[in-house]
Design a protein that fits this description.
three-stranded mixed sheet, about 30% helix, 4 helices, globular, three-stranded antiparallel sheet, 6 strands, alpha+beta
């Protein structure tokens, strides 16, 4: 929703533990972007291409990435803390990230189009 411009407001936990990894080089045809925790990225082996060649990695905390780039996506950015009852519930229920959409998006259908 964010990259499509469908997001009106991005709501983000100020301590959101994910990073944005932009990978280039090796046998990749184009830049690949992943959003995951560092431990998950290492375990998934995303830092090497299919031939085992080390890729060029640009890593950035997602909170920093969102704070720097939210205007490019045409949305506003709101931070929440887990120190209030409501904030803690948001972090538990939505894993610390959510948003308000401008219009309905069928993500299941969109995912099938991207795969097909």
């Amino acid at each position: 929703g964010l990259e499509m411009g469908a997001m009106k407001t991005l709501i983000l936990w100020e301590e959101f533990p994910y990073k944005r990894y932009a990978l280039t080089g090796g046998n990749l045809e184009s830049e690949q972007v992943y959003f995951m925790k560092e431990e998950e990225a290492i375990k998934a082996g995303i830092f090497k291409d299919t031939d085992g060649v080390q890729l060029e990695v640009e890593a950035m905390d997602f909170v920093e990435y969102a704070a720097t780039n939210y205007k490019k996506f045409g949305c506003t950015l709101e931070f929440v803390t887990n120190k209030s009852q409501e904030g803690a519930q948001f972090c538990r229920g939505f894993c610390g990230v959510g948003g308000l959409l401008r219009y309905a998006v069928n993500f299941v259908e969109l995912n099938e189009l991207e795969k097909g």
